[in-house]
Structure formats: C-alpha cells, structure tokens
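Pilot study result, target chain (357 residues):
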Amino acid sequence: MKKLSFRAAASAAVALAVLVPAAACSSGGSGSGSGGAENAKIAFLMPDIASTRYEQYDAPLFKAKIKELCGGCEVLYQNANADAAKQQQQATSALAQGVKAIVIDPVDSAAAASTVRMAQSRKIPVIAYDRPIPAAKADYYVSFDNEKLGAMIGKSLVDHLKETKAEGGLLQVNGSPTDAAAGLIKKGIHSAVDPSGFKLLAEFDTPGWEPAKAQGWVSSQISKFDGQIAGVVAANDGTGGASVAAFKAAGKKVPPVTGNDAELAAVQRVVAGDQYNTISKPIKIVAEAAAVAAHGFIQGKRPQGNTTLFGTPSELFTPTVVTRQNVKDLVKPGGALEPSQVCTGVYAAACAKLGIK
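Predicted structure:
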C-alpha cells in the first residue's frame, strides 16, 4: 500500500475536521429530534407594513406563544415592507443564523417557492402563514379559510343590498395579484357576487394591497360610473378604507363597502356607518397555531392539520362577519378590541347608540 505523504495526510485531517462539524450541524437542522429544541431560533417573516396588523398583533402574539412554549427559544422577526427580494434575503439571513423553522407570510406567493426549496434543502421546515405558497409544498399552512372568507364578504354585502332594495352595480377591489390568499378571497367573492343579480361594473387587483392605489382606482370608477355604484366589495380593511376615502373626496355619498381584518380604524368606520362590514379573524388564533406548529417541528413532532391545500397539510379557521348589528360582540371589555380603543372622540356617540360601553 502506498503511504500518504505528510502534506496529503495533513490535508485529509483538515478535510475531516471541516466535514465532521458540518455533518453534526446538518443532522440537527431538520428538528427531527428534541436536542437543542429548547433554545432554537425560529424565523417569523411578515410581508408588509401597509397592513398594521403584522407589527401590532401577529409578531407580538407569535413571540408570546413561543415564549410560553419554549422559554429559551428566540424569534427572529423581520418585515419585508412589500419587497419580495428583501424577504428572500431575510430568509437567507435567517438560515445563516441557524434557525430551526421558518414561518413566512409571503410578499409574493410564487417567489416564496424558492425560499421553501432553499430551506427544505437544508432540512428546515417552512410554515406558510396566512398566505399559501402553491408553487412549492410548504411543510404546513396556517390561515383562515380565505375562499370562504371572500364568499362571506360578498354574500353579506349582496344580502344587505337586496334587503334595502338598492339599485346599481358593484365595484370589486381585490388584493395583491402576487398574493395567493388574495386570489382565494377573489374567487370566494365572485362565488357570491356573480350570481347575485347585481352587475359587476369593474374590478381591480391592488398591487401590494396598497390603499393609495386602491383609492386612485376607485376614484376613477366614481367618475366613470357616477350614480351607478350600489356597493363596493373590498378584499381587506386597507382597500375598504381607501374606497370610503375615494367617495368622500369626490363629495359623494358612501355606498356600503366591505372589508376584512377588523383593524381598529375599520371597526370605527363600521361603528360610524362609513364601512358596512369587516371580517373578524382573531389573529391570536393563527399566530398561536403557527407557534404551536413551529415548536412541534423543532421537537420532531410534525403537525397533521385539519385539511390539505395545494398539497400542503393545513390548519384553516372560519372567520366572522362583523356589521353594526353585531360589532358590540367584538368591542367589549376583554374582547378583541376594548371600548376604550374604539369609542374615542367622534366615535363615542355612535358607540353609545350601539350599546357599546
């Protein structure tokens, strides 16, 4: 047998020294065992700041539940501010920092597929949060049932317009064209609006869910269909609020306008009668469900979900439509929103009229 030279032997030793730690790191990356689970890092990557919910509710609630489940775990929270490339960089950075799981609400559902593949190649589980990732199978998906949500938004408005014998057609303000959840909401809205008997005058996919872009479009439609708009089906509270603002800026009476997310400003508009409805999706439910799932993965306990969407085991919850008729069930002491938050200034009298105190 040929003997190794001193230089060759030294090179082999260096290579072995490099490979052994790498193998050890790789073996722990999948979270397939409980080792290291109690001081793991978990990435929580949210899509934008246009919706106030992520900073005010999702991130704090997710962090609190992880702390409850795993006192030594660390949540690496990042917000991409509607920049898909930035979100990809945040995911890459999180992986470099050794996260054991990634929870991501994608800016761009198609672009996020590369994040899923990158993480899974390193045996790091990915939980799609709020928005699905159809082009790649995440390990888990946690959300409200967005298609049902869209149907609820549309049906609530249509039923109201029929009860009040409203005449005219509808505007439909959808969410971002790069958001798969927005596509599901849009599909649900159409399932209620298309057979309603009310003509769909026009619809718009709002880039990045940006309220300013929704308001600009609605303003142009007010001019085009002056006196013909019976209602506006808006896919979330940001686009709903933008629609209300467009009518007010045009000096027109605001028709019934929908929303979704039960943001504070939207609930105040519902109380005041400026926005017809919103959708209560208690963020605590999905944030905590995602935290439980992430903690399960890092312990090697894969969650099963209650359904499958886009080939991904999923946990979907059913939301609630909120109008002036039931808003006091949402706004109450100990409720999702406190009366002291909602019934301020000009909204105090409207709250009193609705029995909110």
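One observation from the pilot: The chain is about 45% helix and 15% strand. A full batch analysis is planned for the follow-on phase.
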